[in-house]
Write a structure and sequence with these properties.
Length: 163
């Protein structure tokens, strides 16, 4: 069995015509969200073996906050541009290419793709993920390469408290 945590990046600043979407940063609220959610995971004793993130600034900042809280070196975060540029198919390729020695992986991405990926993996409708929401999915397979549509079960979904 493999465990995949899908994390939508925390709250980012709005679209500024002078700034590329890729470069949008987290707001103060976004930093608080990421700190709250990563602390929840630490208190549950969750430490993934691999962190994979979109290199877009808001997703990478979220991943770095999680890494700091979970005692993982920031340099260990694997950045995949496909998370930012691609859709579900890109996420499928990333998951299927994971090393089998990693049983627990956390992937940081963007809506709507990350929410659609939850639906694809579980085969069940799901609402759009909240900013910094985390979906824990248990995959019914021994090898990442066997990840398929509907092979996962949503174990839980958590998101930051409302502010």
């Amino acid at each position: 069995m493999k465990t995949l945590y899908l994390v939508r990046h925390a709250k980012a600043g709005g679209q500024d015509p002078a700034q590329a979407d890729f470069d949008r940063t987290l707001t103060k609220r976004g930093h608080r969200q990421a700190e709250e959610m990563s602390e929840r995971l630490r208190k549950k004793g969750i430490t993934p073996e691999r962190l994979i993130s979109s290199p877009a600034q808001r997703a990478l900042e979220t991943a770095e906050i999680f890494a700091d809280e979970l005692g993982i070196e920031r340099r260990e975060i694997v950045q995949k541009i496909e998370i930012y540029e691609g859709g579900i198919d890109a996420l499928v390729v990333i998951v299927r290419s994971l090393a089998d020695e990693d049983n627990t992986v956390m992937l940081f991405g963007h809506n709507p793709t990350i929410s659609h990926f939850v639906q694809w993996l579980t085969g069940k409708p799901a609402d759009a993920m909240d900013t910094c929401g985390i979906a824990k999915i248990e995959l019914d397979c021994e090898h990442w390469q066997d990840a398929a549509e509907g092979c996962g079960k949503l174990d839980w979904y958590e998101y930051p408290k409302k502010e």
